[in-house]
Amino acid sequence: MSEPDYSAPFTLYYGAFSLWSTMVRTTLAFRGAPLSSRPEMNLQKRVISIAPSDPQHLSEEYLTKINPKGLVPALVGPPAFLPGSDSSDGTVGDPVGTLSESAAISYFIAEWYPSLLPKEHEAEIRELMTTMRQINFAILTFGVNIQLPGMFLKVIEKMVAQDDISAAWRERLEAKKKNYANAPNVFTEPALEASSQRASELFATIQSLRERYNTTGNNKEGYIFSATAPTLLDAHILCVLARVSDAGRSHLIPPPLLEWVEHFRQGEVWKEILPGNSTLPKY
Ligand SMILES: N[C@@H](CCC(=O)N[C@@H](CS)C(=O)NCC(=O)O)C(=O)O
């Protein structure tokens, strides 16, 4: 079999204030050197507004050609690299040429840039990435009185009321509508309690790893497993810490980790990713 074309173009669709997008952008910022057999990934980034006033993620193009789930981030590239996935649970799988989960996108980037997923810590990193994805960060951000699903429902009602929209677009909008309508069953007090508990356990585990590897001897600098080489776990957890702290829930975070994330936020990587510093959307 011939080698794939490593100079082929990829596009990362991301939301400027989307937590899961920010994790992928930080992973890219931490990428290090590519595999010696490959050039830098030929990647362009395109911002997609997910604000109710300008819902580009609900557009026909995005829902029918980019990500049928209507979520950011999404990585689009040559099918030789991104074969697509069928979902067995009745939700929409990734079509050929797309990856639409922040973890899957980050693991894909780590195949290209191996320092993001060092072999000696891979099992630990994968386990903690899975744990992180059992936490509902939207409920930790917006609380149980989240307004966004209701706002999007109104937007979608108007869209589907038009007779002249394509069947494929209508189908995807109806699926989004169902999800937004289900929000009151998801954003509940017990769910907030469970996510707070899980987040605080996750942060305690990260803190104990930082103590175990003690990479710099101070709380502010370095990464979880190394003083100088960040992994994709650092990228994802730093974004989560910033968001949980911005959302007024820093009591869930051990003080040394707060020092770590505050220091990171003063640095160049964060300035480029979130020039206004805050992770919170303004809508
Ligand atoms: N499991 C997905 C979650 C992606 C996600 O929920 N993205 C949010 C922004 S952080 C989104 O696109 N929201 C728009 C909507 O709900 O319609 C991932 O890890 O990438």
Shape: globular
Largest sheet, spatial ordering of strands: 2-1-5-6
Might you state the CATH topology name of the largest domain?
Answer: Glutathione S-transferase Yfyf (Class Pi), Chain A, domain 2
Mean pLDDT: 95
Termini, distance in Å?
Answer: 50 Å
How much strand?
5-15%
Specify the CATH architecture of the largest domain: Up-down Bundle
Low-confidence spans: none
Question: Major sheet: size, sense and barrel closure?
Answer: 4 strands, mixed
Order of H and E elements: EHEEEHEEHHHHHHHHHH
The value of Rg in angstroms is 19 Å
> What structural class do helix, strand and pairing data support?
alpha+beta
* Structural domain tally: 3
Q: What's the level 1 CATH class of the largest domain?
A: Mainly Alpha
How does this structure look, described?
The chain is built from twelve helices and six strands. The chain is globular. Helices cover 48% and strands 7% of the residues. The longest helix is centred in the C-terminal third of the chain and has 25 residues, at 189-213. The model has no long low-confidence stretch (mean pLDDT 95). It folds into three domains: 10-116, 3-Layer(aba) Sandwich (Glutaredoxin); 118-146 and 187-278, Glutathione S-transferase Yfyf (Class Pi), Chain A, domain 2, CATH 1.20.1050; 147-185, no CATH class. It has helices spanning 19-29, 60-66, 102-112, 122-132, 137-142, 148-160, 167-181, 183-186, 189-213, 232-246, 255-265, 268-273; strands at 9-14, 42-47, 50-51, 54-55, 74-76, 98-99. Helix 1 (19-29) packs parallel to helix 3 (102-112), helix 1 (19-29) crosses helix 10 (232-246) and helix 6 runs antiparallel to helix 7 (167-181). The strands form two sheets. Strands 2-1-5-6 form a four-stranded mixed β-sheet. Strands 3-4 form a two-stranded antiparallel ribbon. Helix 1 (19-29) links the parallel strand 1 and strand 2 (42-47). It has 283 residues and is α+β, with helices and mostly antiparallel strands.
